[in-house]
Design brief:
Layout lengths: L5 H5 L2 H15 L6 H8 L3 H8 L2 H13 L11 H18 L1 H7 L7 H17 L4 H20 L6 H13 L7 H5 L1 H4 L6 H15 L5
Helix pairs in contact: 2-3, 2-5, 3-4, 5-8, 6-8, 6-9, 6-13, 8-9, 9-13
Length: about 210
């Protein structure tokens, strides 16, 4: 009978994902490495690499772990309500881990958990409500890009820092060339970190894409 590896038992995909996300959240995306993870898990660098092969594989473990936290919307939920539930849940996960978004960049997120918990049920609901598959995919893509962009371009874990940095940049502008930006800081800045900007935009997209039979 083959001997079990205590290191591999300790460095499960789930444990690696949790440790990696904690490392990114606490120290920033630049701190993520196999060696740093190995130290946290008290295993060898090679053990971590055996589990995920490369950085892309490691990031896939992290995103799959997060996707597993997306809700399963109960059957019978209305199309608009189900759509808003799914995408707001994705938004909350993404804004909680901005460093992961930085590391993933433009890489597609096609793990089984995301496909099973978000993409497939969202498309199936849209088709059942009267959309063609192409229409359903277009509507999904619009909402996904809104969610991804809204989460990626501001560090919502540090709204005060994001506001301060934007304030400094806008205050340095020439008010004659940028009268709205330089002269309306009190009105412009709050929208940068206001979650309702995303939620309002999502509701508008949902209404604009609502199937006639929904």
């Amino acid at each position: 009978m083959p001997r079990r590896s205590e290191a591999l038992d300790r460095a499960t995909p789930e444990a690696i994902a949790v440790a990696a996300l904690r490392l990114i959240d606490e120290e920033g995306p630049h701190a993520l490495s196999f060696r740093a993870l190995a130290e946290r898990l008290e295993v060898s660098h090679a053990t971590v690499q055996r589990r995920c092969t490369d950085l892309a594989g490691l990031l896939d473990l992290c995103t799959e772990h997060l996707a597993g936290q997306l809700p399963e919307v109960p059957a019978g939920t209305g199309w608009a309500e189900a759509t808003e539930l799914r995408f707001t849940a994705l938004y909350r996960l993404l804004v909680a881990h901005p460093g992961l978004l930085v590391l993933r960049g433009g890489r597609p997120w096609l793990g089984r958990q995301l496909l099973a918990r978000l993409v497939e049920p969202a498309l199936a609901d849209s088709v059942a409500a009267g959309m063609t598959a192409a229409e359903a995919m277009t509507a999904y893509r619009r909402m996904y890009l809104l969610t991804l962009g809204s989460a990626a371009f501001v560090d919502h874990r540090d709204p005060a820092g994001a506001t301060a940095a934007s304030r400094a940049a806008l205050a340095a502008l020439d008010p004659e060339r940028f009268p709205v930006l330089a002269g309306g800081l009190a009105d412009v800045l709050p929208a940068l970190t206001d979650h309702e900007v995303y939620h309002g935009a999502l509701r508008q997209l949902i209404e604009a894409n609502r199937p006639a039979t929904a």
